[in-house]
Amino acid sequence: MSRQDSKLSINSNISSRWREDLQNYQAIKVTIFKNGDQWFDGYELRFKPQKEYRSLDALFNKLNPKIEFTGAVNYLFDTDGNMVRRVEDLEDGQTYVASSSKKFIPANYGRRGEAFWINGHRPQPYYSYRRRSMSSKSSSSDSKPGSGDGKVIKIINNEDTSIVERVLLNLKTTQQFEDVVRDLGQVLKIPNADRMYSLSGREVKSFSHLRHEFYDEDVFAISAGATKVDKSIYQMSRHTSASSSRKSTRLRSGASTRRELETSGGNLKILINGVRKIYHPPGRLPREDNRPPGRHIHLEWVHGYRGVDRFRNLVVLQKGEIVYFVGAVAVIMYIQEDTQRHYIEHNEDIQCIALHPRDDFIATGQIDGKDEVSRSHIRIWSVTTLETVAVLGHGELENGVISVAFSSLNKGQYLAAVDGSIEHVLSVWDWDKAELLARVVTNVIKMCGVTFHPFDNNLIITYGTGHLCFWSRRKDSFFERVDVAEKEAPNVTFQAIDFMESGDLVVGDSSGFISSYSVTDEGEYFRSLHYAAHSKEITCILMMVEGTLISSSAKDRKLKAWDTHQDFKKMAETELPAALGAAVAICQQWPGRSDANVYIGTDRNIIVEGSLQRKFEIVAFGHVSKINDVATCPNDVALVSVGSDRLIACWRRTKLIWKQNSPVEPLCVCYNPTGTIVATGLSDGNMVILKADSGDHVTTSRVCGSAITAIRFCIDGDLVACASHNGSIYLYKVSRDGFSYKKHGKLTGGQLLAHLDWDEGSEYIQTCSTDFNLNFWNATSNRMEKVGSVLREKVWMNQTCPVGWAVAGLWNNHNYKEETTLTSVNVSNNNELVASGDTAGYVRLSRWPTLNPKAEFHEIKIASHEVSALKFFYDDSYVVGTGGLEGGVFKFRIL
């Protein structure tokens, strides 16, 4: 190298270092706004990142005297709500939001002028209704255009449409809504104005109505008295909407208006739990179709049984069908033909069940709901047609229905029920006439059940803690009460009863004793027998047709048979395996026949069939507690569920294929694309890989120290992503056989992640946090995408995140009966349907995508608690949902 070339090279290196240092110490300019105050003018700050402020704390000290909060500035966000964690992340010329709390409040920070004009035109001088609150500083500031508490609207005289004014309403005014409408009428020259209507003719009745139901409308008609909206107003509005849409740069669908709260720069904004969320739809939105989907959901099969906290909840029909309940669904299962039918008219969890003596009707009572519609009541329905024939006690029974029973001697004409109120009220109806015959307060600490005496329609027995009582109903509808419980044992609970052929009452109690009670010729009740049958509490007893009594204990899981013809001599004894649990319900397999086979429901949510002489076989199996997630096989009608009971279970069609116990609670599960591997994420931060056909363990990988809440394979199965509670996503490289996993990368965030989806190119990931923030990640560069709008055209493998532009219409739907929070969504493989589950226990089927809150849907309520997961089968023939405290798996056929 020549001396001249060497000199140039040295100078070049020196210049390069200078340029690097100059870049590091070059001053940048940022504008800082105040969180939640879009009218703050903004504080312009120039500084050198590497020299003046080496940490955010030093920067916050600078901002504290400039931006006043009740506390100190502790956080910094970009305008999309992403938290800034390093000074180096600040970019020259950008806008940021300072905050004293972690909660980011979306607003139009720094946007003025044209951004707040209506339809591109400057509004006329505003008429702001603040006459009674002019001294309030907050009211005057809240009424600015674009404010979350101010609404600019056009008002039209319904009698004279030539009179039009544009006004700004302060939605925080202390005036009554009726006074404001009257003032608006004065502006429009309408004496005694008292009605405001939308263009569709719906009346606006309050500020809350205006804020929520009519958030996307800005033209209203004012009138005096009830009337119809003038057609010219509607036509004028349509013309204005059409002209403005032609001038708009955003592509619109065929609908006249978009239903979203606001549209600014192509962004979509909706309210989720009172917080405004911003999403970025694609440039060309699909055409809105608010009709219900052309296909329906039909409940075909339920895996599960609720025995963990319910007793006497299993009955058998004469032709061999068993009836029980899971969540809000009553299941009629015919084991011989492997079929199920379902009664789905309850709107809260079923709590008790009773079979009519003629075997053609069933009564079920539900728990108390949150609203008037879902209050405690009893439904009597036909076993054959599944139609409701009577509804009793709606609004009269408090805190749920504990027990129901039909009378026997008069062919089931009467129905008795005990509610869950403090007094435990006993009610008796002539149910066919819906006539209340009598009601009495029992004043029991804990009530377990009620039943009629088989030989007397007016003799009712109630039992519970320290309580065993005979109630004789007189003609004047009053009761004569006889307590037969021993007063020296007030803490003994009577929780299992039946009747002998002679009519004597047989009772099993919590101390392990079986007693019988008889009546003298003078009508006095006395205890005729008392013996120790079990060492611990007796949970259920059954009097067989041939005179054999079967009893079961919850502690030792033993079943014992007693010969009532030989002074209750023990005939046989067996013990249920620990995996099956203890019996909580026993029914004879063929009622009325001398058959030793029985059906037993256990506290492990399992129903078994067998006898004391032979092995018990499982006929219904379920999780013991809440199911956390479910996954469907990509090439078979199989699914895997994981629950808080630490159980991993695989089902195919109607059968349980395999189950595995996990050392800790599994929170999420998925199949690999070939369907050969099942990956589960555990609460201790481990990822466990199992074989899909057998459940055999393959390998365990230590991912992190926090719970794994979502796990998904990419489209070709080469990568698997694990989302964690610590806010990070961990990527693993997968071998071809799916048996080997090597750490590939880590994407660091800061929010508690709950859902995860891959894009079809396996380059990007979208996640939903526990507070419903939607974030995007670049799996190639291992960084979060701060500008989500750049991915607006991305196509995702599936939509399991319950937020986003394509599911925006599922939120705040006007057809919902209550405020609902979505907990799970899933899109069909043909991209025509979307299934959604919520905290109220509803499964809904809608069109995909769902853009409008006015979109119709089909729904079924499966439980009182949240629907934790939903998945379509690979061929879209079924959608599977999990919900309820008892861990039911509900399989719906798509018709």
Largest sheet: 5 strands, mixed
Provide the helix percentage. Answer: under 10%
Task: Count the beta strands.
Answer: 64
Number of helices: 6
Q: What is the CATH architecture term of the domain at 627-801? A: 7 Propeller
Q: CATH-wise, what's the superfamily of the domain at 627-801?
A: YVTN repeat-like/Quinoprotein amine dehydrogenase
- Radius of gyration based on Cα positions: 34 Å
Low-confidence stretches: 1-24, 112-148, 237-265
Written account of the structure:
The chain has 6 helices and 64 strands. With 895 residues, it is mostly beta strands. Among the domains are: 77 residues, Doublecortin domain (Ubiquitin-like (UB roll)), CATH 3.10.20.230; 146 residues, Doublecortin domain (Ubiquitin-like (UB roll), Roll); 175 residues, YVTN repeat-like/Quinoprotein amine dehydrogenase (Methylamine Dehydrogenase, Chain H), CATH 2.130.10; 76 residues.
Would you summarize the structure shown here?
By secondary structure, the chain is mainly beta. The chain is built from six helices and 64 strands.
